[in-house]
């Protein structure tokens, strides 16, 4: 070895000079955080903690979040993100009330939402750094610099000079963009909780980032220096860890366009004394925060119990738990559920912030404990899992929160992680969210490929072959054609957390029973997309060739009093045949809530003798009559 090379090698070893092997490519983001923290005088733990709460340090393929935020630091630019006000009910023909005793309700679309400062932080970051807004949106390094510059500016405005993370509470609270003290504190508290516990993960683009656990007691008194309005959680039904806001949905009479006296936008009830609350329904708003709040305040619109804001996870409550909101398109589900709307857009491939996931999980844990709702996908369901009420309504049902809602991460936050239980006849769907990127189309324009991104959806095929056709859903595609990769077409698609009975296994492929068909999905042992588990299944009773499947668990005709119109028990257009097996979600009594008048004194819960079993029949839950099926452990044939 030549003397110069020996000297260089020894010098590197002694002085700790970074070499190529000690400076791996997956550490680029970590170095970017360190460099930006040093450049702008922000404690690195604070910068990492804020970024984690916004994006978990991901880039999300350059797409904006549900609140127009870009990159690891969630710099907002509503001009380049989806500017539409939109509504949760623009797409499809669904009647959100879903009650045949009343005329269908179809709300009008909302107007676009005007940009507000909270949705334009990229401009301030550009002014502070001299970096073009395009680079701040698309370049992770510049995005991190922009976020650090904002934090430093917020700290300067507070008037505190310190490199102690504890003294940055006010700047962190400001970064969340809240207008009130409660929401600002909720965001900051969660950031500092993350700093205290630490975090370590590989991002969606393969970067390994670590936030070492750093015990910090933040200076919460700084909140008073931000000039925010004082908030109160009075009148809300929320856990103490969330600062919820009461923004009531109006229960009012009005004259409709035909001159008829009617009312909105929910029904009075007396739950859980009158009816059990059995479901929590996860929605996305298809609109931005301010526009959505304007809609829920309108008696002519529809309602839901809670709205959650993307940027900081703030929660607003609109309808009391005892009352029934018009939210899920199925009156049976509405009358037995609580609906949570999350600021977001299912079709556009936008992503949901960690702050919103965490607030939502806190709220759902609280609700589930209060009403004894099991933390599983038979009870914590998406709007896309709610069935049509009768054959005519199946096609028009909504499909939010869509394939980009991370159910696996959500259940981790709920404290109910999806885990294997052994191969006992069922599988729980659970692909690797970051690596699972189905080739969907139509997110922005019909037929155009969507931006590849992590998804909880697994695609089913008619054969153990990725080139074979997809399954058929006669409800969504009455013409008999197979399903497609259109983002809204879940004819042949299962979601994380859902459980299905195994029908067959061939090599790396597993088949499940799905809408009366065998649906095959790739499930290699070394990288499984489903976990073996066990539970209960239903099969047709001996001697029955097929049994009907229903979209609601309504009573038999003889159960109705004379003054209440009988609601039809109409089978859906699907076949459940002998030899097939479907996982059991829960056993149910038959009920119908008669509440079609403004005067709630005559509202009545009609209960029948008919018993139902909820099953995972396809992408949506459905119901069969208990008298038609046998219920048995999944490991028995």
Characterize the structure shown.
The longest helix is centred in the first third of the chain and has 19 residues, at 140-158. The model is unreliable at 1-21 and 85-90 (pLDDT under 50). This protein is of the alpha+beta class and 637 residues long. It has 4 domains: 26-78 and 113-226, Lysozyme, CATH 1.10.530; 237-417, Peptidoglycan recognition protein-like (Lysozyme-like), CATH 3.40.80; 424-533, no CATH class; 546-633, no CATH class. The chain has 12 helices and 28 strands. The strands form 9 sheets. A 6-stranded mixed beta sheet has the order 5-11-10-13-9-14, sandwiched between helices. A 5-stranded antiparallel beta sheet has the order 20-19-18-15-21, with no helix packed on it.
């Amino acid at each position: 070895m030549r003397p110069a090379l020996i000297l260089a090698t020894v010098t590197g070893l002694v002085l700790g000079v970074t070499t190529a092997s000690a400076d791996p490519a997956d550490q680029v983001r970590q170095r970017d955080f360190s460099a930006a923290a040093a450049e702008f005088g922000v404690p690195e733990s604070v910068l990492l903690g804020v970024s984690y709460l916004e994006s978990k340090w991901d880039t999300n393929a350059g797409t904006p979040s549900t609140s127009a935020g870009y990159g690891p630091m969630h710099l907002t630019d509503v001009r380049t993100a989806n500017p539409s006000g939109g509504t949760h009910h623009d797409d499809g023909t669904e009647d959100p009330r879903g009650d045949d005793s009343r005329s269908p309700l179809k709300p009008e679309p909302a107007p676009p939402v005007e940009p507000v400062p909270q949705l334009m932080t990229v401009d301030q970051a550009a002014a502070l750094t001299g970096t073009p807004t395009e680079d701040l949106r698309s370049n992770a390094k510049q995005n991190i610099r922009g976020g650090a510059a904002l934090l430093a500016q917020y700290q300067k405005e507070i008037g505190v000079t310190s490199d102690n993370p504890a003294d940055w509470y006010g700047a962190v609270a400001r970064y969340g963009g809240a207008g009130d003290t409660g929401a600002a504190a909720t965001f900051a508290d969660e950031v500092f909780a993350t700093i205290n516990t630490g975090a370590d993960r590989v991002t969606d683009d393969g970067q390994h980032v670590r936030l070492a656990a750093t015990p910090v007691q933040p200076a919460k008194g700084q909140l008073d220096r931000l000039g925010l309005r004082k908030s109160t959680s009075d009148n809300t039904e929320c856990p103490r860890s969330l600062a919820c806001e009461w923004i009531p949905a109006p229960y009012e009479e009005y004259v409709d366009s035909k001159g008829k006296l009617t009312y909105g936008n929910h029904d009075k009830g007396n739950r859980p004394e009158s009816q059990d609350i059995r479901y929590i329904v996860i929605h996305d708003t298809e609109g931005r925060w301010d526009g959505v709040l304007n809609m829920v305040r309108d008696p002519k619109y529809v309602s839901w119990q809670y709205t959650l804001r993307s940027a900081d996870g703030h929660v607003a409550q609109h309808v009391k738990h005892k009352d029934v909101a018009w939210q899920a398109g199925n009156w049976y589900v509405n009358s037995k559920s609580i609906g949570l709307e999350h600021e977001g857009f299912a079709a556009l491939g936008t992503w949901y912030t960690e702050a919103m996931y965490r607030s939502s999980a806190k709220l759902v844990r609280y609700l589930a404990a209060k009403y004894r709702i099991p933390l599983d996908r038979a009870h914590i369901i998406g709007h896309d899992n709610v069935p049509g009420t009768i054959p005519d309504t199946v096609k028009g049902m909504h499909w939010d929160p869509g394939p980009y809602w991370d159910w696996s991460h959500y259940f981790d936050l709920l404290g109910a992680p999806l885990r294997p239980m052994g191969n006992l006849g069922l599988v729980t769907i659970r692909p690797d969210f970051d690596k699972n990127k189905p080739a969907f189309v139509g997110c922005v324009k019909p037929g155009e490929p969507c931006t590849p991104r992590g998804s909880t959806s697994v695609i089913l095929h008619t054969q153990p072959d990725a080139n074979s056709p997809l399954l058929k859903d006669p409800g969504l595609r009455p013409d008999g054609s197979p399903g497609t990769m259109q983002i809204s077409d879940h004819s042949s698609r299962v979601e994380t957390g859902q459980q299905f009975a195994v029908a067959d296994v061939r090599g790396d492929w597993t088949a499940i029973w799905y809408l009366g068909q065998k649906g095959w999905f790739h499930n290699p042992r070394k990288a499984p997309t489903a976990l073996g588990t066990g539970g209960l299944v239903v099969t047709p009773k001996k001697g029955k060739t097929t049994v009907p499947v229903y979209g609601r668990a309504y009573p038999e005709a003889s159960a109705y009093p004379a003054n209440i119109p009988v609601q039809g028990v109409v089978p859906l257009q699907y076949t459940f045949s002998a030899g097939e097996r479907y996982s059991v979600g829960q056993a149910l009594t038959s009920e119908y809530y008669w509440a079609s008048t403004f005067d709630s004194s005559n509202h009545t819960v009609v209960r029948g003798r008919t018993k139902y079993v909820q099953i995972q029949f396809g992408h949506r839950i459905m119901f069969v009559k208990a008298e038609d099926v046998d219920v048995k452990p999944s490991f028995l044939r």
